[in-house]
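Morning F.,

Quick status update on the modeling queue. The single chain you submitted on Monday has been processed. Sequence for confirmation:
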Amino acid sequence: MRYKKRLFIGITAFSFFISTLMSNFTSAAVTGNNILVNFDYSGSTVANGTALNGKLSDNGEFAFWVSSSGNLVDGIPAGGRRVYKRDLSTNVTSLVTKFANDTPLSLSSEYDYSTSMSGRYIVFSSSASNIVTTHTVTNGQKHVYLRDTVTGINTLVDQSATGIIANASSGLRTPRVSDDGRFVVFDSNATNLLGSSTAASQNIFVKDMHAGKVIRITESLSGEVANGSLGGGVNNIFSSCDGSRIIFRSNSTNLTTYDDGEDNVYLVDIRDGFSITNLTHFANGGVNPISMSCNGRYIIVWSNATNITEDEVTGSVPHAFRYDLVNKEFLLVDKTSSGDVSTTGSTGGSVSNGGSVLFGSNDKDLVNPSALYAPELYLRDLDAGTTEVVTIDASGIERGIHNVGPWFSHLNARGDKIFYTSTSNDLVPGVGSTSGVKAIVTTVD
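Structure tokens below.
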């Protein structure tokens, strides 16, 4: 059974080795060099709607976010949750989520999409029936689609190798796409994606968009299908940018010999065959994945467990931990530059190829002098041992984050750009006194 998976992917360890060598381990420093992303189409003021779940391409050239604005793109009315893309080199904003006839498509949730590292591809889920022209989707279920923003073509993802459409909902959690658009990782309750009927269950699949093949990764080395659930929440499946490493949460008891029925984080590696590892079986509390670095080296998890590291944590609040797949080591993220543990824990998080972590916290004492706002957004360089406030202006004055910002912020793969949202009018020169949420991209040296 496993030889088929080797043929399916055939990704070697070479790409991971090279990306590890290219990781940047210099100390990160937030500059306060900020630009406004969600200008209206006239370029003169802030757009009049929401700005949620921001993403950045690897080089920071493209920014994505979900908005209900009616003045981001000329001719696109207000309403719904639509994904927009801004080219930060040309300052042009375009609508990304579209039906097959190029009319605006709204998502049911701001979590229903993700992008490739280059920014060319977007993968999203929707229950709409006219997103593609190649299939007639009439079963009223949620399905997963891949959009090429260069060609403007939408492709149905959750179908079998022979083109049979999934017979149950897919994409109930955020799907992922490799940088070349070839591999899409998604969850599904369908029973017909592998060519033969399987028991209905929450499973995770990888689809090869070039060859058409589909594999299921929520199974043991012997092929036994996971007997647990993927847990609550919609944002707990992540993959490396080449699509070869995937992490997810499950409370199964039959995926590895270490399973205990608690929420654990599993790592699947399909670069050369198939392997599955329970990374957190030792933890004395449930664990949830919240990010994976583009190169696949670093994983961020969130937990109330008190024994993941030797740090003194009480277990009363969840903390973020970074796992290094090279050094096989967990480190606590939400600490001060002097090493003191956060008293309120953390929220959200993303990690760069070099291991720097962006996270939110209500703990104003993570920096000295104390932060002015809570929650606030912080950048932690674990190699240098530094923690910094992100939401500063060019003079170094803290301006604060939007209250839902920690979950919708993003550190790009290179670790030199951060996307976040704020209601402050002082982060970007020339914005003036305007209401509404500002989508900001700031630079990290």
